[in-house]
Design brief:
Bound molecules: S-adenosylmethionine
Oligomer: single chain
Number of helices: 10
Helix content: 25-40%
Strand content: 15-25%
Structural class: alpha/beta
Number of strands: 14
Radius of gyration: 23 Å
Largest sheet: 7 strands, mixed
Shape: elongated
Strand order of the largest sheet: 2-3-1-4-7-6-5
């Protein structure tokens, strides 16, 4: 067999499959889709027999959390033979694909009600299978091969496959294990944490999210996102008519502005715009495009609340709105969307714009960050009383 296995939030299988199938059909391949709960399987037949299935680029897929190429389906053997059967399957696959071994092992099951019942088995199997594969020299740091996926589905079948190192997501099931930041006022904090991990490569995170930068948070109450930015030493203007949590204000890095996020503009450009206002997605898209095209921010993370039908179409319409705004201003950009693990009926967008060229050439424009915003500030700690947010790993 040869198929793509896509993991997604339960209820979004059609969107994930449609998106990936579209990419395969555009290459002229024939596709047969079957949907599970929390996953979809695409059997792809490369027309003309030319080559094998290749996963769509990780950056292109919005609704798939993780993608791997399955090459073998086998029944889940009974307990005494299970590890040996899986180890044998992994060896067969390696031989077929011409691999010396695998760099990582992911034993996974769907993120669905039924699939979650298999997670304890996945954890147990993971340890035993790892030891068995290492014993046969098929897994380990000396095997610079792809990652090995062992996917258990509810009907007691196993799909074995591979994904490139790094792949669509570095986490098993594409689910980041984030600890809730101690003291953060809302679980939304995890959403922005995940977005920053997903959209800003690890090697660039320190430079692109550094102390002293400035951000605007539109729709900030109660302050989970502002907390995440302040935890990185970023000064935040939080715009919302609703209240901000006391702990957020006491960081001394967050200024509260009670204003309409659609009409408020910063007195000078900022490094980051984040926007979590619950409203029509196209309105948010237009606003983000407008900020970026006017050079008011360099990067933006924003949430688009999705309708229950034609979700992929809606994201694409919104992407077109952002691009249109930027096109008018002639700004180069990178725009991505991802249905993150912490997203429910929404997707998260990330936009990075190239700095505007200065008239007459010369140095690129830099957002100013010397002056403090003129707006009202609430809850600023007295001098010497600045409260640092708890670090991201939750340590006090
Ligand atoms: N990101 C926040 C956090 O981490 O705590 C949660 C934001 S909540 C989902 C949405 C917020 O958007 C609400 O507090 C609401 O008051 C705000 N909002 C909606 N429309 C707005 C507007 N036009 N201007 C400013 N805030 C708005």
């Amino acid at each position: 067999m040869e198929a793509l296995v896509l993991y997604c939030r339960a209820g979004f299988e059609t969107d994930a499959a449609a998106e990936a199938a579209e990419a395969a059909r555009a290459r002229g391949d024939a596709v047969r889709v079957s949907l599970g709960q929390g996953y979809a399987v695409l059997e792809v037949e490369a027309r003309g027999g030319a080559g094998s299935v290749s996963a769509p680029g990780p950056r292109d897929l919005i609704f798939s959390r993780q993608v791997f190429r399955a090459t073998e389906r086998l029944p889940l053997a009974s307990a005494p033979d299970r590890v040996a059967a899986l180890c044998e399957g992994a060896w067969r696959q390696a031989r077929r694909l011409g691999l010396r071994g695998y760099s990582e092992l992911f034993v996974e099951a769907p993120d669905s009600e039924g699939g979650r019942r298999l997670w304890p088995l996945c954890a147990a199997l993971s340890g035993e299978l790892r030891a068995a594969l290492e014993g046969r020299g098929l897994l380990g740091p000396r095997s610079p091969g792809p990652r090995l996926h062992v996917f258990l589905s509810e009907d007691s079948t196993v799909l074995l496959g591979t994904s490139p190192a790094g792949g669509v997501s570095p986490w098993p099931m594409g689910i980041p294990r984030l600890r809730f930041p101690a003291g953060a006022p809302s679980r939304s904090a995890l959403k922005l944490e995940e977005a920053l991990l997903a959209f800003v490569p690890e090697g660039e995170r320190q430079a692109r999210l550094r102390p002293g930068m400035r951000a605007v948070d539109l729709g900030a109450s109660p302050g989970g996102w502002a907390w995440v930015l302040a935890a990185r030493g970023i000064r935040v203007t939080a715009v919302d008519s609703g209240p901000l949590d006391r702990a957020v204000l006491e960081t001394g890095l967050v200024d509260h502005v009670r204003a309409d996020g659609f009409t408020w503009r910063p007195p000078r450009p900022v490094d980051w715009l984040v926007c979590d206002m619950v409203t029509a997605p196209a309105r948010v898209a237009k606003l983000v495009g407008l900020w970026a095209s006017r050079g008011l921010c360099r990067e933006a993370v924003f949430n688009l609340k999705l309708p229950s039908a034609s979700r992929l179409g809606e994201v694409r319409r919104c992407a077109a709105v952002v691009v249109r705004e930027l096109g008018r201003a002639g700004r180069g950009h990178v725009l991505r969307f991802k249905h993150l693990y912490h997203d429910r009926q929404e997707v998260t967008g990330h936009l990075r714009v190239e700095p505007a060229p200065r008239p007459g050439g010369g140095e690129k424009a830099q957002p100013a960050r010397a002056r403090r915003p003129q707006e009202e500030r609430h809850g600023r700690a007295r001098r010497g009383e600045r409260r640092r947010p708890v670090p991201r790993d939750g340590r006090q």
